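FORM 7B: Structural annotation worksheet

SECTION A. Query
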Amino acid sequence: MAKRGPYGKGIERRDQILEAVLRTIAERGFHATSVAELAQAVGLSQSGLLHYFGSKEEMFIAVLRRRDEVERAIVKTPTPESLIGLIRRNTEVPGLIELFTHMQAAAADPAHPAHEYMREHYRRSTEGFLEALRSMQADGTVPAGTDLEAMAATFLALSDGLQSRWLIDPSIDMTAHLTLAWSRFTSRP
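SECTION B. Predicted structure
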């Protein structure tokens, strides 16, 4: 059903703004782009831009949620191989890695608006990965008796940690490290 009236137009405009902000941060970088520049990129004042989100932090959380939606559309089943491929693609959008890393650190404060987003992000990521690991364990790819929850948490933490390190040292080959880790996770003792 088509969106009608001012409410529908507002949602549509917010979506357009969100796509433009996501694209700008991905291309230019999170730290290299001010809210004023983001507003200018979408033809609004800073207050006009933030009107659609409530605050700068909420806008950035909305960008991360949209990025998550795009990634879920790309990665139908979160297998180790698909997650490694996702990390490889993330190197093409370092601004989004910067944003995620910044918000991840800020989310350590339970009062920060990103706190609940990150809790939900990790819950959803872990559940999806666990489902794939259970299937892989059933078909013999992952050794029987492996603590799948620990494996999922470790692999996802390694992915995030490598992305943070990559921001500091882009010579780090994240996909090679993750591929090595995965081979160690699945090797039989």
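SECTION C. Observations
The chain has nine helices and no strands. Residues 114-138 form the longest helix (25 residues).

SECTION D. Sign-off
Analyst initials: ____
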